[in-house]
Design a protein that fits this description.
The complex is a heterotrimer.
Chain A (H helix, E strand, L loop, with lengths): L14 H4 L7 H39 L4 E10 L2 H9 L3 H19 L8 H8 L2 H11 L7 E7 L2 H7 L16 H13 L2 E5 L1 H5 L14 H32 L4 H13 L4 H15 L7 H26 L2 H9 L4 H30 L2 H5 L14 H6 L5 H10 L4 H31 L4
Antiparallel strand pairs in A: 1-2, 1-3
Helix pairs in contact in A: 2-19, 3-4, 4-6, 10-13, 10-15, 12-13, 13-15, 14-15, 15-19, 18-19
Chain B lengths: L5 H7 L4 E12 L2 E12 L3 E5 L6 H7 L10 E9 L2 E2 L7 H7 E4 L10 H12 L5 H14 L3 H4 L12 H14 L4 E5 L7 H14 L4 E5 L3 H7 L2 E6 L2 E7 H6 L4 H7 L5
Helix pairs in contact in B: 4-5, 4-7, 5-7, 7-8
Chain C lengths: L2 H26 L11 H38 L11 H20 L5 H6 L7 H7 L10 H38 L7 H41 L2 H6 L3 E2 L10 E2 L2 H32 L2 H16 L2 H20 L16 H26 L2 H9 L4 H30 L2 H6 L17 H9 L8 H34 L2
Classes of the chains: A mainly alpha, B alpha/beta, C mainly alpha.
Chain lengths: ~450, ~270, ~500
């Protein structure tokens, strides 16, 4: 076959065709290098994407986890009967307690050879109104007088940030909240080993605070707000979405009206969420005069936003039920409506529920429309006291609460915002896991 | 073709061995698709693989240019040599191999590009042309060889997907020969074509024999009889019989071959 | 009577109808259900639904129509010439409504008797003070005209409510009675009920249309109001964005161009990040990756798409922004002073790009997988390497679909709100420096409409004009992209 190339289309001998398969031609070397490069780009892209994910997760966890703990000062404290009587006889009773506390701590410092001077003002800036707390404790529990009691006092958020290294000495210029000298006391407390951290339940169960108290802010009330919104979304979007899907998938004749609905649904799925916010503002608040910031309004807006998602996934599950099931039902004399409601719908239900949960998860994290219906300006200081109040009274919602905190000027709120994100993501993760389990459990291959 | 004399066939079988396969085994996952096949394929000859569907003839064909590599679960064992070189050697680049062993597929699969670009694709990636004029030349010669030039010369820039089925398959053949292969593998090249297009392609195959070693997988015994000089009969992954085509069709040695040829199995 | 109560009564009538219908069906069948055309439950449901549905429809229409009707007739009473300078009919009307509500509250709290509320005159008493006593604050003194309008507003609303209650309940009872009377052995109750259910299904499906109509109407009406106060030319071609909140926004400059520029700039950066990474990731996952790598990497990447945008916003504001300042800011790692603050086009663009990666990659992945295997075989069979096959055969074949995917991603980027609100800054400017803070259409919609928005000043109304621009652009992109993708799918089907 030496003349194999003699009548090749090119009419010229082509060297590559003669080459042995066992040796790599220079041309091939170049091509293989290009191949390897191309593959590297792909690996690089995936790695970059995953690196983004890891970076994001890392910064959420690193910044958010401190929100769940608070810095506390653990003090063993003994109040004698004389001290109690003496303090109670004074005009400024809480100040007296504060003084006793100051003396006690100073003693503890001196035992350890630490020499720091401080007064009641410092204590208040670092630990809040300690005197009042002590007084009410001993008045409620007189039996504890004369015995050593362990107190856990939560430290101000600035102390916490100082300990985390986010606040440095030269940043402490505004003496209203913290003075530079106070930090010496904090250092001494660290040296004495009485500063520790404790789980902060208040963050999970508490309500939002004003701008001046970042330490006490909690996300609880807005979780309830989100919950009421999700109830509204579920109650409206599931039946409406399923009804619309059944019509489009099982009954709709092929005509202009049906086409119009189809086009509308696929376009609504891609309309920016902020536009739904405008719709909510104009229709529900401006036109229908529903209350601003109410979870009901938020729920209505999110329902409209979620409907296309639910309709699309529901139609897919209805489509996956084989026609033979419908034929079988029609064959025994069921009406079309009965065949759908008795056979097709129950078989499609797991798929529909999966789609609904994913739609709800999407709605739960949505923020932009909530900004427009007034959920952001509102400071959720209270839990709603009942179902009607939960739906109609102004409240915040988790993502809106996170935004509110992120938008405040006091950096101490940022930690709360990150912590809020962890809670939000835990909810989303749970919902998605439930959806995955549902899908695995009930997945049916026809 | 049909009027080919037995003497032609005898002459063609005298050629040297181009491909030699020994003890080839192929597994698709747990399925044993090819069982211990030995075959020598001669140069400048049309060799036909026949057999009922699922007998492994296409699988074996795809071993010859290592197209089975693209299927994750396929494993090939045994020894296949082209011009004495083991094509499954670790040093062999399947890409280089495929340039040497071209392939035409069952369904015409022109790229969604112009007719010209379809044919020029192979020469471009292999760097066969030094300039545009040479490339034009290769394209023209390939199209002429594939008997498509007269129909396509006025619309070289039209999309290849716009041609008729038979034209598309001839375009794919032109595309394959443009890379100057030494062996041309054809996997049921006429199964998607009508009788007229089939006749054109068969005529083409017979002409290609002068330049290449052609291996063709076919369902149709008549086609094998018309175009090939050697025929291999596969059954259930085994190579049952391999001999000159006229011998297989007139005097098969194995009872299974006889049953298949007389239409009792398959 | 309150609407909730009316609704409850209707529902009660429905239940009664259900029970009565079932009883009558069994009665006409002589107690044997086999004598009936349909199952008894269908007769019952028919009566129940007839009692509920028409009444609810009437109630719904009434609730929408009544305020319109009253508004129109009351505003007819107000003399056009008497409207103060700088005010408008809609402002006067909102005053009227507020006074009317105030009077309602006053009556409810017992501070005024019902007669007093309808007869009180500004000439004799200071209405503003009287209302303030019960906790209703009014901005300005109440003119006699406003008060009279408010009083007739109240009177009409009262009559309207009574009429509504009576008519709705009558409709409900009539529906119940008629359908109950019609029950016979051969009455095709199932067919009727199924028709009713069908109507409900069609109604549910029509909500999609209603939503779109709602969006368009609310945007158009408010935009129309805006263009009455502010010239459309200045809005679409103005290069300065400087809303002034004093003096009812009279001296504001509201040009959309700086916002469009910011939107475009951020979207382009986002796409520059997302498209190459997403596309290469998709190519690797669909062409090279082994099954196990694919089964891990693909869902991991898609996690990025499931994270709410507020998380990305916070990430941009608090992590990426400061990080970029450390590199490009004053005293940063590069020794340049391009960046003065954490919020910038680059910050928002980068983070938005991250968010869009899975969007591009999973759409492209689907599209690349839709390219027939025969194309790959054809190319590989000619001795092309895998990457040559991808670059020269698969990508060109998939190109229309990939372009569609990129357009969909672009429409996402343009409509994205939270990342830009938190990450891009608030200053509207036409600058080329990607490290400058800029703002976008969506961010300005948020800032113009949050807080106590007064829907009569151009500063708030401009948000609707921005909204309609955003809606039109994204809708156009979506329709075009979906069209391209569909065309592409058809090609290989």
């Amino acid at each position: 076959m030496t003349d194999a190339t003699s009548d090749l289309p090119s009419g010229k001998p082509v060297t590559t065709a003669h080459a042995s398969l066992l040796t790599e031609s220079p041309k091939m070397k170049k091509r293989n290098a290009a191949e390897a490069r191309f593959k590297m780009y792909g690996i690089f892209a995936i790695t970059l994407g995953l690196a983004f994910l890891i970076f994001l997760t890392f910064s959420i966890l690193r910044n958010g986890i401190p929100a769940f703990t608070q810095t506390v000062v653990n003090v063993e404290f003994t109040l004698t009967q004389e001290q109690f009587d003496e303090a109670e006889s004074k005009m400024l009773k809480t100040a007296a307690y504060t003084e006793i506390f100051v003396n006690n701590i100073t003693e503890q410092f001196q035992e350890r050879g630490l020499d720091v001077e401080f007064d009641g003002g410092t204590v208040e800036r670092l630990l809040g109104k300690v005197g009042g707390d002590l007084r009410s404790f001993y008045r409620d529990n007189p039996s504890q007088i004369g015995q050593p009691v362990d107190f856990q006092l939560s430290a101000a958020s600035r102390v916490e940030r100082y300990l985390q290294g986010k606040l440095t000495r030269d940043m402490v210029v505004d003496g209203r909240f913290l003075e530079a000298a106070d930090l010496d006391v904090v250092d001494a407390m660290v040296a004495a080993g009485i500063i520790g951290t404790a789980w902060d339940w208040n963050f999970i169960t508490g309500t939002d605070t004003g701008v001046d108290n970042p330490g006490g802010a909690g996300i609880g009330a807005s979780v309830i707000g989100s919950f009421f919104m999700m109830v509204v979304v579920l109650l409206l979007s599931l039946p409406i979405g399923v009804a619309a899907s059944i019509y489009l998938e099982e009954f709709a004749p092929k005509n202009r009206f049906t086409d119009l609905i189809e086009v509308n649904i696929s376009n609504l799925a891609a309309v920016p969420s902020i536009v739904f916010g405008i719709l909510g503002l104009a229709v529900f608040i401006q036109f229908a005069h529903l209350p601003q910031s109410a979870p009901l309004v938020g729920g209505l807006v999110l329902t409209l936003m979620t409907l296309p998602t639910i309709v699309i996934s529901t139609r897919a599950s209805l489509k996956s039920v084989p026609p033979s099931i419908r034929d079988a039902a029609l064959g025994v004399g069921a009406s079309k409506m009965q065949s759908v409601f008795h056979h097709v719908l129950p078989l499609a239900m797991p798929g529909i529920l999966t789609g609904t949960i994913i739609g709800l998860a999407q709605a739960l994290g949505e923020t932009a429309p909530l900004l427009l219906i007034g959920m952001v300006g509102y400071v959720a200081r209270e839990y709603p006291d009942g179902i009607a109040s939960g739906l109609l009274d102004p409240n915040s919602a988790m993502p809106a609460q996170i935004y509110t905190w992120a938008a405040r000027s006091d950096e101490a709120f940022f930690e709360k915002a990150w912590g809020g994100i962890i809670i939000l993501l835990i909810f989303l993760l749970t919902m998605n896991i439930i959806a995955i389990i549902l899908r695995r459990r009930f997945e049916r291959r026809w | 073709m049909n009027d080919m004399t037995p003497i032609d066939r005898k002459m063609s079988t005298m050629q040297d061995v181009k491909i030699s396969a020994k003890g080839v085994q192929v597994y698709y996952g747990d399925t044993h698709a090819i069982k211990d096949v030995d075959v020598d394929i001669a140069d400048k000859t049309v060799t036909a693989f026949i057999g009922p569907s699922g007998c492994g003839k296409s699988t074996f064909l795809r071993c010859l240019n290592r197209m089975n590599d693209t299927i994750d679960v396929a494993r090939v064992m045994g020894d296949i040599r082209i011009d004495g070189e083991d094509i499954y050697d670790a040093k062999v680049d399947p890409v280089q191999l495929r340039a040497k062993v071209g392939m035409v597929f069952q369904k015409p699969n022109p790229f969604p590009k112009s007719i010209y670009d379809n044919v020029a694709y192979g020469p471009k990636i292999h760097g066969l042309a030094r300039n545009k004029a040479e490339l034009d030349d290769i394209v023209e010669k390939s199209l002429r060889k594939a008997a498509l030039w007269d129909e396509a010369k006025d619309r070289l820039q039209a999309p290849g997907t716009g041609l008729s089925g038979g034209q598309q398959q001839r375009l794919c053949i032109a595309r394959a020969i443009a890379t100057a292969p030494e062996v041309l593998l054809m996997d049921e090249p006429c199964s998607a074509l009508d009788p007229i297009a089939t006749a054109q392609v068969e005529e083409l195959i017979d002409e290609l024999r002068q330049s290449f070693s052609v291996v063709i997988v076919t369902h149709s015994m008549q086609q094998a009889a018309r175009v090939s000089q050697k025929t291999a009969f596969f059954h259930l992954g085994n190579l049952v019989e391999y001999d000159d085509t006229d011998k297989i069709f007139t005097n098969p040695q194995d009872p299974r071959t006889e049953s298949y040829i007389s239409g009792r199995i398959g | 009577m309150s609407n909730t109560l009316i609704l409850l009564i209707i529902l009660g009538l429905g239940v009664i109808g259900f029970i009565m219908g079932r009883a009558r069906a069994m009665a006409v069948a002589d107690g044997d259900r086999r004598n009936l055309h349909s199952l008894p439950v269908y007769y019952a449901a028919n009566v129940g639904l007839n009692a509920i549905v028409p009444a609810c429809i009437v109630l719904f229409i009434w609730l929408i129509a009544q305020p319109f009707f009253i508004n129109n007739s009351v505003s007819g009473m107000i003399d056009q010439d008497r409207i103060a300078e700088g005010s408008s009919l809609s402002l006067v009307m909102s005053d009227v409504r507020r006074v009317a509500e105030g009077l309602d509250v006053a009556v409810a709290e017992g501070a005024m008797s019902a007669e007093m509320a309808s007869d009180i005159r500004t000439e004799f008493s200071n209405v503003r003070e009287r209302l303030a006593e019960v906790g209703v604050a009014l901005g300005s003194g109440v003119t006699s005209e406003t008060l009279q309008a408010a009083q007739s507003y109240r009177a009409m609303a009262l009559t309207g409510n009574w009429l509504k209650t009576i008519i709705v309940l009558l409709v409900s009872v009539a529906g119940l009675a008629v359908s109950w009377r019609m029950i016979t052995r051969d009455y095709r109750a199932r067919n009727i009920v199924e028709k009713g259910i069908m109507l409900v299904l069609i109604g549910a499906a029509s909500i999609a249309i209603l939503t779109t109509v709602g969006i368009i109407l609310s945007l158009i009406f408010n935009t129309y109001e805006f263009f009455k106060l502010y010239s459309a030319w200045d809005f679409f071609f103005g290069t300065n964005w400087a809303p002034s909140f004093s003096g009812r926004g009279g001296s504001s400059e509201l040009g959309i161009l700086p916002l469009l520029w910011g939107t475009l700039y951020i979207s382009v950066i986002a796409l520059l990040v997302a498209v190459p990474i997403g596309l290469f990731a998709a190519i690797y996952l669909s062409e090279y990756a082994s099954k196990s790598v694919r089964s891990i990497a693909k869902p991991m990447l898609e996690v990025l798409a499931g994270i709410p945008t507020i998380v990305y916003g916070l990430f941009a504001l608090l992590t990426v922004g400061p990080l970029l300042v450390e590199v490009f800011g004053d005293g940063g790692a590069l020794g340049v002073t391009w960046m003065s603050g954490g919020t910038a086009v680059m910050t928002a663009g980068l983070v938005m790009g991250m968010m869009l990666i899975p969007f591009v990659s999973s759409l492209s992945d689907d599209i690349i997988n839709a390219v027939p295997q025969a194309m790959r075989d054809g190319s590989l069979g000619l001795g092309a390497t895998h990457s040559e096959t991808v670059r020269q055969v698969i990508i060109p074949a998939a190109l229309p679909g990939i372009v569609g995917a990129i357009l969909l991603a672009a429409s996402r980027a343009i409509g994205e709100t939270m990342i830009v609100v938190l990450g891009a800054g608030a200053a509207a400017r036409l600058s080329l420096n990607p490290f400058d803070a800029m703002t976008t259409v969506t961010a300005k919609i948020v800032s113009q409409l949050t807080g106590d928005s007064d829907f009569s000043s151009p500063v708030a109304l401009v948000a609707f004009a921005l909204g309609i621009s955003l809606f039109v652009v994204t809708l156009g992109l979506n329709i075009f992209a979906l069209y391209i993708v569909r065309k592409y799918r058809e090609q290989y089907e």
